[in-house]
Amino acid sequence: MRAEILGWLLDVYTRPSGELVCWLLGKDGQRWLLPMDFPVTFYAGGRPEHLRQAWRAVTDSSVQKARAVRADLFGREQILLSLTAPTPGQAGALYHQLSTTFPHLDYYDADVPLGVRFMAYTGVPLLGYCRFQTDGQSLISLEPLESPWELVPSQPPLRVMELTCSSDPALKLPSTLMLHCGTWVYHLALQPLRAFLANFQAILQRYDPDVILTDYGDAWFFAFLRESAPHFNPNRDPIMPVAFQRERSLFAYGQVLYRARQAHLFGRWHIDRCNAALFGEIGLEGVLELARVTGLGVQEAARKSPGAGITAMQMHTALRDRVLIPVAKAQAETPRTLNDLIQHDRGGLIYQPLIGVHKYVAEIDFTSMYPYIMVNHNISPETLGYHDATSGLVPRTLRPLLEKRTALKRFLCTLDRRDCRVPLLQARQKALKWLLVVCFGYLGYKNARFGRVESHEAVTGISRELLLQSKEVAEELGFTVLHMYVDSLFVWHAKSTREEDFTPLLLAIERQTGIPVTLEGVYQWLVFPPARRHPSIPVPNRYFGAFNDGRVKVRGLALRRHDTPRFVAETQWHLLSLLAQSENPEEHAEAARAFAKAQLSRLARRDVPAEDLKVAVKLRQRPEICLRPGPAAQAARQLHERGVTIRPGMRLFFWFTRQGISVTQPPPEALDLERYARLVQRAVDEVLEVFKPPPPLSLQLRLDSFAFPACTCPQRP
Amino acid sequence: MMNLAPYLDTNTLVVLCGAQAVTHKANRLVAWLALRGPLEVIDAGNRLQPYCLAHFLREHTTETETCAQHIHLQRAFTAHQVVAALEAAPAFSTPLVVLDLLATFYDETLPLPQARVLLRHSLAHLERLRQTTPLFITVRPPPSPARRGFFEAVCHSASVIFLDPEPTPVLSQPRLL
Questions:
Q1: In total, how many domains does chain A have?
Q2: What is the CA radius of gyration of chain A?
Q3: Are B71 and A338 inside 8 Å of each other by CB?
Q4: pLDDT per position as a tens digit, A601-648
C-alpha cells in the first residue's frame, strides 16, 4: 500500500549490494530504512583511441555507455565517455576498475560524496524536511519542503544516547561505562562481559537511539565490541556491519594531525567526541548544520575537516550547474616573472603595534572579510583576469553561506544572552564560520578541485588594499591606528570612549570597503607587550586587555597555548583578572605581583595538585627518528615501552620530573619544581613586564664636555 | 659560481641529485642562467627561494630587476600540474630548469600506478623539450623505497648527473647507562 509521509531525510548510504538506502524519520516518530533507485553517471576524458579502449573494456550490460559533450570549469567543451551505472555501488566499482586499467584517462564526477550527489539529484538536503512516498518496501518519490539555507530549519526529534567510560582506554582498560539516555543514566560494569553485553543490547533496543555520542568510541569501544562479541550488531540496519576506517596521521593546516580509527554506524549515527575535531566547539547542533549545508553525512561532517565540507559544497554547485568535477586538478599556474611572484605572493597585512598600555581602544573586525572579498569581487579560478565575468563557481557557492551566517549573527544580536536559543544558534553560526574560514585557504590548496593559487593571491592582495583604505578612513576622521592585523584594526581617539562614539567610523569603513564591520568592543585598557628579546620590538599577535563590559581578551599569551600546564594558565588568568578590576591596570600591578609570588610559594611548598602540572604536547614525528628527543618524543618512548601505540599527531600528557619526564603521575618530591617555577615566572613576565617602571635614564652630559685629553706626544723637532 | 657553459647545448639533460644541498645549488643555477638571459623555471617542489635568488643576483649585477624579469616561473603543486606545465612548456632555445621534479610524485596520496603513468608522460615531454632546449633538473631521493624507480628513471634519462654524496651516518658512542 502506497503511503505519503512528511518527515526528515537523515542519511543515505549504500548497502553491500550497491543499492542506495535512505534513512528517514517520519513526523509521527517512525524510522524508515528504504532502498531507492539511484543511477549514477560519471565521465572519462582523454584521447579518442583511449576512450574507445575504455568503452570496449566495460562489458557490464547494465551500464549505459554514451558519448557526451560537457564543459569544464573554464567553459572548455570536451568529448567524453559517459558511464551510467544503475546503483552507486556499481558506479564506484566501475570507476575503481577503469581508473586502475586506464590511469591515463581523466575522470570527472566520479568521486562525489553520495550525500552531495543525492542532494543535487533530489533537491532534498540531509536533515531537510521533505515529503516522501513509499510502498513499505522502497522509496518511490521524495520532495523537498525545506532549503538548507532556512534560518530556522525544522528540527527532527532525535533520540541521543551518550556513552562515557571511566578511564582513557589507551592507558587503562575502563571498568565501567556510563550511558545517558534522555533522563536515565545507566552504570554498566564491563565485567562480566556477558552481562554487560546483554544489558547494553537491551538498552540499545529499548531506547533505540538515533545518535550515539561516545568518548573513545572510535579508538576503542566499537572495536572492543567487535572483538568481544562478533555477532552483536549495534546498527539499526541489520544488513550492515559496523564500518571501520583505519587510523592515520596527516599534515594539514600547518600541523601534524592524528585521526584515530573511525567506527561508522548505519541507520543511526556514531560520533566520538574525542575524535571529532570541531565537536567541542560546535556540538551536535553545529555538526547537524554542517551536514545540512554541505551534504556530507553527519558522521563524516563530524570527523572531517571543514575543508572537506567546502569542497562538498563546491561539488554540489558544480553538479547543479552542470560543470564537470575533475577527480584530479591538472591546471597549472600561469607562468610569470620572479618580480611578479615577489610582488603578489604575499599574505594579509600585518602592522607593527605601538607597544605599551593604551586606554579606550576600539577593536574593529571585518565580518568574514576573505569570503566577502571572494563574493563581492567575484574571485574564482575561472573568472580571474575577466572584468565582466558572470558569477564564478566559488562565489556562487559562498554567497548563500555568507548570507545565512550574517543573518544568524544579526538574529543573535537581537536576542538576550540568557535566551535558551542562543547556544544552539551560536553553535550553528560557528559551524558556518569554520566553513568560511577554510574557503579562502582552499583556493590555494593543491588538491582543491576548484582552486587556483592566483585567485588565492588576489584575495590577499585585495584584503591588504582594503585594510589600508580603512586606515586612511580612520585617520581622516581623527583616529590613531594602533595596530592592524589581517582583518582587524585597533583605533584610538582622545574623545571616543563609548561604543557609539565609534559608529561613524564603522559606517565610513563599511561604505569605503563594501564589507560589513563589527565593533568587537571598546577596551578600557589594552596592552601590546614588547618582545622578550628586546623591549622596543613589538609582537603583532600578542595583546591583552579588558573591555568596558568587563570581558578580558587575550591573544598570544601562555594561557592560550595548549601545552601550558593548568596551574600556569590559571595563574596568568588570575593576574589578568586582577588587572581588569579597574580602569588603570597599573593600580593593581602590585597586587598582581604579590599574587604571582604567592603562587610561586605554593609551588615551592608542593601545594599544587599534580593534575594541574600536567603538560600536553602534540607529537610531530615518529619518536625513533628524533636525533635529540624532546619531551614529546621522550613521552612517546615511555608510552611505547608500556605497550601503547603511538602515532604522530597524537596529544601526549606528561609531567616534568628531576629525571626528565614521566607519563605517569610522579610523587610530589620527584617533580621538577624549578622548571615549573620558570614557566610560571615567564607567564607572569608576559603580563607584568610592561607595568615595570622604566629603567633610570643614564647620565646625560653636554656634547662639548666630551673633550679629548691634551696631546702628550713629543713634538717633532 | 659553477661553470655550466658546456651544458648549455641542446640535447643535453643535466640532472642534479641530492637531499638538502641541491636546493641551494639550484637557486644559484637559476641566478647564473638569469644573468645570461631569459629562462623558464618550473618549480615542482616549492624550492625556489626568491629572496636568496635576489641576493645571488645582487652579488653579480646591479641590474637585479632586469635579471629577475628574465626568470619566467611556473609553480606546480601536484603531479598532474607538473605534467600540464611540461606539456605547455614551449620548445624554445631558452634554458628550462625543473626544480624538484619528483616531489609531487613522491606524494603517497597519489596512487602508485597513476604516478607511474604521469612520470612516463613527464619524461616524454622532457625528451621532446631537450631536442631544442637546454634542460636542467633537480631531484631528491625518495623518502620511501617504493618509489625509488622514479628517481632511477630520471637519472637514467640524464646526459650528465651531478650527485650530492649522501651524508655518512655519524658514529655515536653507546650510552654508558
A1: 1
A2: 30
A3: yes
A4: 999 999 999 999 999 998 887 777 666 778 888 898 888 888 888 888
